[in-house]
## 1
Amino acid sequence: MNILILGSGGREHSLAWAVLQNPKCDKLIVAPGNAGIAQIAECAALDIENGGAVVSFAHDNSIDFIIVGPEAPLAAGVADRLREAGMLVFGPSAAAAKLEASKSFTKEICDAANAPTAAYGHFTDADSAKAYVREQGAPIVVKADGLAAGKGVIVAMDEQTALDAIDDMFGGAFGGAGAEVVIEEFMEGEEASFFVLCDGETVLPIGTAQDHKRVGEGDTGPNTGGMGAYSPAPVLTDEIAQIALDQIVQPTVDEMARRGTPYQGVLYVGLMIKDGQPRLVEYNVRFGDPECQVLMMRLGAQAMDLMHAAAEGRLADAQVNWADDHAVTVVMAAKGYPGSYEKGSVINGLEALPETSFEMCFHAGTSESTGQVIATGGRVLNATARGATLQEARDRAYAMIDTIDWPDGFCRRDIGWRALGG
Ligand code: AMP
Ligand code: GLY
């Protein structure tokens, strides 16, 4: 099979790495890719949010199967264009991608599906949003309705912060994404992510993970896209996962099918868990980054068969073969991230890193320049490892980190601390 993966981050590097282990893959192209991906697959420059361009590229390169990594092409309807052109694609339609692209849409689906989630209000003007905040009091959560690159959520511990966030959002701080806001009850508990594949009807769980969103050790400081992750998430027990499937995920997938917009792809189910009960925080319509890296490390070659089965509507017959193992990924980011940071610093030591089915350093934001790997993003490398225990996986990941010679980078040294008991 000739396969095309769309995207350029650590998520896509790990997808490419897993796909290449599957003997069914004859040729792999990643567009646009990065310096790490270029070491294992062909990379091609392509505007991945332009459906017409992606269709032509896939056609010209005799592609049999397309895997869409990030949310933006999905929200832009790239999977629709590919399917209209008769191509096999893993990823939801634009209509189904609204589960990530619109927070009010997700809330409406939860209402229809009777899925447990935070109580909320949906507003199109600042005055009524503020009146709702004054009535509910703090803590309270203010969310821009649309895609805001992970930045459109303000967890306000006091009323003034919430009122200011409303002004910012309606003032255009998040562009069109903030033209409508959702205001939610603040949920307490421990967060974990549940990943399932869907083929429109059937739901197949493929793993759990927890990420560390804050930049600082002990989960402090500003929010990031994720400074590390581990799988499985101990808080998401089999029992809680089953409740989430029965009360949240399957009713959502059923409701999407009932509306004529069936969900096909991976559904990232963000949960808040308290007293054994999960509630939905958010859906994402793609793999998490860096959560994908730990899932791919654990699933290996079967990941491609599972995504293929989802795209072909064959999940009812598919099965995941679990190894009873653990995986950890530690993100190395450019100093200054998530604030401003320099681009272009040279990274050394990468050639000394092991590349095995237990250890892999995925590239998230790198380019090649005159034979050297340089940092070109905020999150730059993902040292990813698996082991029989979380501790073993973590030790392997940090051994990789200690081999990397990149003075302009930093990482958190405490990835997995909650699961390891502090
Ligand atoms: P979201 O983009 O919706 O995942 O929100 C980003 C982060 O904000 C989540 O991962 C949570 O940590 C936090 N968050 C979002 N909604 C709530 C809520 N209703 N209660 C508490 N925390 C929340
Ligand atoms: N790591 C969080 C995300 O991918 O949204």
Note: DSSP finds twelve helices and 23 strands in the chain.
## 2
Amino acid sequence: MERTFSMIKPEAVLGCVAGKIITRIEESGLKIIAQKMLRLSKEQAACFYAAHKDKAFFEELIENITAGPVIVQVLAGENAIEEYRRLMGAANPAAAEENTLRRLYGISIEKNAVHGSDCPETAAREISFFFNQLEIIK
Ligand code: CMP
């Protein structure tokens, strides 16, 4: 069993499609073993996305991710990282495959509805950024 981190972004929560996204995650076979809703401060968002701090889109990324509440989750399953990335689709909704979360619910590359970890090291960092051990179902 592998774990990955998932974030349902403000545009999806404010657009009232978080429930549909959660249903798709459940139907995919991935298990939601932790979940909560919160709103990130600018400082927290900059820390979470520190890997992108030199990118041209960094400021816009921080604006978008702090524009409203997010739902953060820990997902578990076989090859959970790759499986969730497949379910999300490409970062740009216009380029994402049919029926993927970003194709269905993303608005643009900047507002692409969901985030998921890209490798085991990132998953471990992102999970511990938001959750302590007591909050994750064993
Ligand atoms: P996410 O998976 O949350 O990781 C970083 C985010 O930066 C990404 O999804 C996009 O929403 C956002 N972003 C904005 N512009 C770009 C870009 N040109 N390339 C990649 N990601 C971008």
Note: The longest helix spans residues 18-28.
